[in-house]
Write a structure and sequence with these properties.
Blueprint lengths: L3 E16 L4 E17 L3 E5 L6 H9 L6 E6 L2 E2 L3 H6 L2 H4 E4 L3 H4 L6 H12 L4 H14 L16 H13 L5 E5 L7 H18 L2 E6 L2 H4 L5 E6 L2 E7 H6 L4 H8 L9 H17 L1 H4 L9 E5 L2 E4 L2 H14 L1
Parallel strand pairs: 3-8, 3-9, 6-7, 7-8
Antiparallel strand pairs: 1-2, 1-4, 4-5, 9-10, 10-12, 11-12
The structure holds adenosine-5'-triphosphate and magnesium ion.
The site of magnesium ion (MG) has 4 residues, from helix 1.
Length: about 325
């Protein structure tokens, strides 16, 4: 039985919207609105959704750089949503983040040596020589030449900067890394390289990933379990088999149909399928979303498979699924 490393329970992050002469709070952006997920030790958990669905906010709330509105994040049996508990459990060392935008997340005025050494300095007492040796090792792990030490972020390509981001994230020997679209800004070939060495590092050091992406294709071969996010909420969660072979929510189906295909032979067929799914998504809004356009609460379909549907719809969908078997 897989052991869990982290449990996110009913996480909400709401941002106030102010307007009018008095600049009063008139409403909230519900960036994350009741999200619960459990990640096991050493696994890759995919968090997928289109732009603005709340993925980065979820990731930042988990690592503790974004204040939460309500909910719990349980690590080693303790709720770490307070800074005091995070310190007590060494949480800031054990849980790291690779940020979405490598250009703005690496300080342009610092040399690579200092960028990678920063988390080490926060948590360990190494001599200058020991520290340099450690940074060299880390550069080696991510396949960067050793003279990178003395350079600045702008002297590297996007792919190289992502590798530097990975080196910094693994510097403290973490248990969990939140990887926010680590490859989406990269060319396909470089994307594959970065994914491969992330996988390699994961196996070598037994790290769990919360892998954030807008593309279900990217994480297909990496993720054991996935959560699909839309409008701040989860529309579907399940194992890789549940999500890729038995998707139920129209939004999941839509993301699946959007995966770019290399296969030329079926291009026409796929285009037609994509248009059908898009039609269904447009026409059946009232079935999949409530009258305010909000995603319904998740309901269990089987073992790990949960989908957001009103109660009576679930029965209908189950009947359809059975008919198909
Ligand atoms: N500091 C903030 N103040 C107000 N609204 C915010 C803030 N940060 C994010 N939001 C809003 O919260 C929602 C979710 O943003 P988030 O960055 O989490 O989305 P995302 O899924 O990571 O999107 P992308 O794929 O574009 O990175 C968006 O509507 C965004 O505008
Ligand atoms: Mg984001």
């Amino acid at each position: 039985m897989a052991k869990e490393i982290i449990q996110v329970k009913n996480l909400k992050v709401h941002y106030p919207i102010r307007s009018g002469f008095w600049n009063r709070v008139t409403d909230y952006v519900r960036a994350v609105d009741d999200v619960s997920i459990t990640i096991n030790e050493g696994e890759t958990y995919g968090l997928i959704g289109e732009s603005g669905s709340g993925k980065s906010t979820t990731g930042k709330a988990i690592v503790g750089v974004e204040p939460i509105t309500s909910g719990q994040i349980i690590y080693q049996g303790v709720n770490i949503t307070t800074a005091k508990n995070r310190r007590k459990l060494n949480y800031n060392k054990d849980v790291q983040m690779i940020f979405q935008d490598s250009m703005s997340s690496l300080n342009p005025r610092k040399r690579i040596e200092d960028i990678i050494a920063e988390p080490i300095r926060n948590f360990e007492n190494l001599t200058t020589d020991q520290e340099r040796e450690r940074v060299q090792e880390l550069l080696d792990i991510v396949g960067m030449p050793s003279d990178s030490l003395y350079k600045y972020p702008h002297e590297f390509s996007g792919g190289q900067r992502q590798r530097i981001g990975v080196a910094r994230a693994v510097a403290t020997n973490p248990r969990l890394i939140v990887a926010d679209e680590p490859t989406s800004a990269l060319d396909l070939s470089v994307q594959a390289q970065v994914l491969n060495f992330m996988k390699h590092i994961q196996q070598q050091y037994d790290i769990a990933y919360l892998f954030i992406s807008h593309d279900l294709g990217v994480v297909k071969h990496m993720s054991e379990n996935l959560a699909i996010m839309h409008r701040g909420r989860l529309v579907e969660i399940g194992s890789r088999d549940d999500i890729y072979n038995h998707p139920m929510h129209i939004y999941t189906k839509r993301l699946l149909s959007a995966i770019p295909l290399v296969d030329v032979e079926h291009r026409e067929e796929n285009k037609k399928h994509r248009q059908e799914v898009e039609q269904e998504f447009q026409n059946d809004q009232s079935k999949w979303y409530d009258d305010k356009g909000r995603v319904y609460p998740l309901q269990q379909v089987s073992g790990k498979h949960w989908v957001a549907l009103p109660k009576d719809e679930l029965k209908q969908e189950e009947i359809k699924e059975k008919g198909r078997d």
